[in-house]
């Protein structure tokens, strides 16, 4: 096809639209409550650091056995770092506390514990040098089952905030324990002299 304008002739291209069924893009997963995702945002960090502030202001005793303060050594810097985690299971007779990594296996504190021992744990009024171990997937699943039985409202709230899905379902809970390391911390045995 040729279009004539005045004394010049300009070629015109024809565009033919072809319709095909293109699948729609995959739907985005629902955004977790308050917009939190795999990595903590500013709001999440502010809320989750409140227990850390309590421990830093000598008010950790108010938290009882609900949150613990873990001091670990940076694997690259060698500097001490502090973090607070919710205690999912506490055994009063052995003084063992179990926590999990809310942000998965790449959290700095998890990588630091894989590289070396923890320095200190403060749990309420008690402070000790811990020994730690990573739980197996079966042990981790059992911790989730016990926690959801004892604290169903807390589990629903945390799951909604962090977008973990419904951990009341066994399949979802098993999948969660495969991707989130669980760590048991208890006072290190003091060698007898």
Topology of helices and strands:
Blueprint: E1 2-5, E2 8-11, H1 42-48, H2 50-56, E3 67-73, E4 80-86, E5 89-91, E6 96-100, H3 108-115, E7 118-123, E8 126-128, E9 130-134, H4 137-150, H5 152-162, H6 170-179, E10 182-187
Antiparallel strand pairs: 1-2, 3-4, 3-7, 5-6, 6-10, 7-8, 9-10
Helix pairs in contact: 4-5, 4-6
Brief write-up:
By secondary structure, this protein is an alpha+beta fold. The protein is 30% helix and 26% strand. The protein has a single domain (35-184), classed as Pnp Oxidase, Chain A.
Write up this protein.
The chain is α+β, with helices and mostly antiparallel strands and 193 residues long. The protein has one domain: Roll (Pnp Oxidase, Chain A). Helix content is 30%, strand content 26%. The chain is built from six helices and ten strands; from the N terminus they run ββααββββαβββαααβ. The strands form three sheets. Strands 4-3-7-8 form a four-stranded antiparallel sheet, sandwiched between helices. Strand 3 (67-73) and strand 4 form a beta hairpin. Helix 4 (137-150) packs across helix 6 (170-179). The longest helix has 14 residues, at 137-150. The radius of gyration is 26 Å and the shape is globular. The N and C termini lie far apart (101 Å).
